[in-house]
Amino acid sequence: MSEHSAHTAEHPVAHPGYGTFIGVWVLLLLLTAGLVSLSHLGQTAAVWGLLILTPLKASLVFYYFMHLKYEGPLFKIVLLVTLGTLLIFFALLFSDVAFR
Amino acid sequence: MSGHVHRDDLGSRLGMWLFLVTEMVLFGGLFIGYSYMRHRYPAEFHHGGGELNATLGIINTIVLLTSSLTVVLAIVAVQRAEKKRAIALLWTTLALGCTFLVIKGFEWSAKFHHGLYPNAPHLATLPPGEQVFFGLYFTMTGLHGLHVIVGLSVLGVLLHWVATDRIRQDRYIHLENGGLYWHLVDVIWIFLLPLFYLAA
Predict the structure, then answer these.
(1) In this predicted complex, what is the ipTM?
(2) How far is B28 from chain A (nearest CA, A)?
(3) Where are the domains of chain A?
(4) Count H helices, E strands: chain A?
(5) Distance CA B86, CA B70 (A)
(6) Separation CA A19–CA A25 (nearest Å)
(7) pLDDT tens digits, residue range B92-113?
(8) Which residues have CB under 8 Å from B174's CB, separation 6+?
(9) From A88, which residue of chain B is nearest by alpha-carbon distance?
(10) 3-state DSSP assignment of residue A44
């Protein structure tokens, strides 16, 4: 890894700058505003907001703030396997309770 | 930088991600429990959500999102050897994290004054669905609050390390990993906001 660190030290410009992250932060605030507005429009709109905007916000944090965009496939696989496992448990639970 | 020091930044980040994955499963289990209970008691969860202060929840969301930004900007500053800026950004993160906890403190104390706290006599008189709602509310926001306290402690140490050059342009993996933890705390809150505060 010393090669990697030397590379990092020599080419700090290769990393994303302040602007990228500030842009993502603005987007996150806008999505939050959208989520709050939808929650005032009624139950259906609120649920759609929850199901679409919330995972979108989480993805932005994962992808940019947590640098997943700049990592190799292994990190993405680790995350997807975890979320997939949770989704399977969720589906198993509701396949039971939804039809009682 | 002597070349004798063993370093594996990729392995270090992978280890951190594996730890974060266990955190996701921990909170994921609670989220699945919440979904089931909301499915079972829709009206009570709607009413319970109405008891919470949505404005405070939204303000705290903005506070945490901004604190996530300042951490990631602190990493950029360290990468560019802008030490003073990195320190200022980390102080801002600490201040925002404390703000979050203070707001949460006000929110919880208001609930306590209304007789809403775990095992409260007033809570026992409410319908079972609302008891479950407040049980999940205190468990999940409480567990999240604990994570905020841990995250602030870690960031405090990292701030000291930046100030003493233990974290610097050619060696900042600890700051990256501490930042990852803080961002996960932010992600969890992103889900808590609509599930509790906007549930009404």
Answers:
(1) 0.92
(2) 7
(3) 2-66, 72-100
(4) 4, 0
(5) 9
(6) 10
(7) 999 999 999 999 999 999 999 9
(8) B158, B161, B166, B167
(9) B32
(10) helix
